[in-house]
Amino acid sequence: MKLGRRQFLATGAALSSLSAYAKFEQHKPSSGIAKRDRSRFLRNGQPFRIIGANMWYAAWLGADTQFGDRERLGRELDRLKALGINNLRIMASAEEGPLKHSIRPGFTREDGSPNPALFQGLDYAMAEIGRRGMTAVLVLSNFWEWSGGLQTLLWRATGSYINANDPAHPWPQFADSTARFYSNAKARGFYDAHLRRTVTRVNSITGSAYATDPAVFSWQLANEPRPGGSDGAITRNASAYYDWIDSTAETIRALDPNHLVSLGQEGTQAANSSQAIVLRAHRNIDYLTAHIWPLNWSWAKGDDLDGTWPTVEKNTLAYIAAHQSIATTMRKPLVIEEFGFPRDGESYSPSSSTAFRQRFYRLIYAEVEKSWRNGGALVGSNFWAWNGEARAGHRDFRFQPGDHAYMGDPPHEPQGWYGNFDSDAAMLDLIRAHVAERCLGLAAACTA
User: Fold this and answer.
1) pTM for the full model?
2) What is the CA 349 to chain-centroid distance, rounded?
3) Does residue 350 contact residue 424 with C-beta atoms inside 8 Å?
4) In this predicted model, what pLDDT tens digit does every residue of 93-139 receive, in sequence order?
5) Which residues contact 285 (CB under 8 A, 6 or more apart)?
6) Which positions carry the signal peptide feature in this UniProt record (predicted)?
7) Residue 402 region, left (φ>0) first, then alpha (ψ -120 to 50), else beta?
8) pLDDT category of residue 446 using cuts at 50, 70 and 90
9) Measured between alpha carbons, how far is 448 from 445 in angstroms, rounded to an integer?
10) Which domain holds residue 206?
């Protein structure tokens, strides 16, 4: 990543912020803060259903720097708004450190100090999201390496680390190592410092506190936090894992009593199939999440999507049913906040077809729509992910330092693997068709 930033005189920056604030005040949406009512969400007293996308890089585009692109951010948000997307899941964190394939710059530098450029980028992104009447899930860290994450916080605390996918440390060593975070008081202190700095922030563009911003849908503890990878590590870490979840949720609510709190867990896949761990982990969390990754979980084969489709369909439906059952038991909403499938032939090119991805999305959307129709706990979804107008800058489709054509595919993954491009007409039509069903089971006057 290019680390250079434009420098402004303090007076000029203040005038610029006042001008931007005035613009956003003129277009301030009337929508209220989302709340939970048992197994559904409400906004302004009306049912609110998630029709969402993942766009982790919004704050990077929002930064007024060489690595940012505010004009592109506006275009992408306009495209998503036109599709009918009402919720984005974005990163409000990234930790710089020694791990390979981690995005730079981060919200915090290697020494733990905050990077003002990205916080201001988040401010701008949230102002633009709110101006369009959309909402965002703000993710406060990551179990995985592509944004630094919990392993980087451990490195800051202990001086040691391991890389994901390192042949010297095969699976599940990275997961087992990262899960030591929950019992490390110093590493948790670094996490808490970023949490407090973010949750108590006043948006430099709008002048409004995040804690009162209706564009914030929920604060999310981390992306896919697991108690470990091996059964032994999960057992050892369970108590500390639950303590971290409970105490972090309590801290967020003390700082911001207005917004929802989510965990960001994949579901039973994060706990080696244990429903008991999912139930306990969400005891003090407002709603449940599930992530579904057939290729990553070996339900599908990239070179034989047709032959492995029956397994994909069977396992996906079973996974959704299991998590709907958990959510119903807990009387809490469920959001499938990540789901992804490769392009045909596992191609990364925007010109390749998406027949099997379309089939997978329809499978997910059909279950969401069935729940809408029946008043079930499954209240929405966020596809992974939005690539928009970005295109890979290299023939090998790999992200390289200095690139800033950000995609939904993070820097450790092939660029174009799971993300949807603005040119994916069939995918966009499919999403529009799902949006058109958003009022199933509700009154005719529904605007959810």
Assistant:
1) 0.93
2) 24
3) yes
4) 999 999 999 999 999 999 999 999 999 999 999 999 999 999 999 99
5) 245, 249, 261, 262, 263, 332
6) 1-22
7) left
8) confident
9) 9
10) 38-435
